[in-house]
Design goal:
The protein has one domain: Nucleotidyltransferases  domain 2 (Four Helix Bundle (Hemerythrin (Met), subunit A)). It starts with a helix and ends with a helix. Helix content is 75%, strand content 0%. The protein has helices at 3-23, 27-50, 59-65, 70-79, 82-85, 96-118.
Amino acid sequence: MTVSEEWVKKALEDLESAKYNFKGGLWGNAAFFAQQAAEKALKALFIKRFKFLMKIHDLVTLAKKLKCPNYLKVLCNNLNPHYTETRYPTGRKHTQEMAEEAIKNSGKVIEWVKKELRK
């Protein structure tokens, strides 16, 4: 298994964790894991293309460096806040709808990355 494949595998595990937390009503945790899944998927592609790991949590920056299509940059921008807002009690309270959207957006990012990795 290549390094990029290992990162995608971990991204898919995080997406499953997001779905599991969603089913349990833990909306913030679901959104956090959705953001993490997208981040790991983008890093998988970054590693394949540039041969190193960029240690950053900003999905929009990763998307720009990877020259992602604009719709994906929008999804990344929507996912970005979940990295910090879900980790502290002072963050925004997450709703079921927010978590559901995060999971959906993360899945779209992962699917795009998987297609790019096959090229």
